[in-house]
Amino acid sequence: MKVIVNGEPRELPDGTSVAAAVAAVSAAPSGVAAALNDEVVRRASWEATPLRDGDRLEVLTAVQGG
Length: 66
Prior knowledge:
Layout: E1 2-5, E2 8-11, H1 18-25, E3 32-36, E4 39-41, E5 56-61
Parallel strand pairs: 1-5
Antiparallel strand pairs: 1-2, 3-4, 3-5
């Protein structure tokens, strides 16, 4: 299936979860947020939330510093 992750098109296997997609773009163990089709997905729901063809996923990582 084709999805957009952080503005870039990606081919992912059918049924890929938000958790798997986040892991593919960020190795950060914490400070990561995900929004699926402009809706924030709670971290507790990432594993149970499948992506579908045409979805848009934004993965945001908090950064410290100036």
